[in-house]
Specification:
Helix content: 55-70%
Number of helices: 6
Distance between the termini: 131 Å
Order of helices and strands: HHHHHH
Amino acid sequence: MSQPPYPSWQPWPGHSAPSMLASHADRERAVDVLRAGYGEGRMEHAEFEKRVARAYAARTVGELALLVADLPQGPVAQSASYAPVPRTFLPVPPRPQTNGKAVAAAVCGLLCVPTMGLTGIPAVVLGHVARAEIRSRGELGDGLALTGLVLGWLSTVGWALVLVLLTVVSVVAS
């Protein structure tokens, strides 16, 4: 019997005896490591073919270990020399949404003038609810909610003053 092309003194990972006979599973694991090395460009096609043939012909785990000894047998750890990705190329983090009730409060507040104050109370209610949701959820739109609140309160107070003045005038006139 001829001597194997590689000495059988290095153990295959997980086996303690380098002269232990190789199983079909051991050969397939070695071929998988060879395929990964070839796919990463670590060897030429001719060398890959020779090593695969030797892997299938190997009798011991030591022979298989020598065939893959110069290849990484798992994920290669990245060295710390890699620079971080510049911010320009990083994905933009999602921006928080604008609270819908804040938008509705601002619209109701702006509509107070054409509707003669009819939308003032909804603007106040929506503004308060929106500001509470914005604080708890971290959403955008606090300025819109505040705009709706201010315009809604101005409209409500304005109508309250008009009603008080009309009441006073009607009491004085009678």
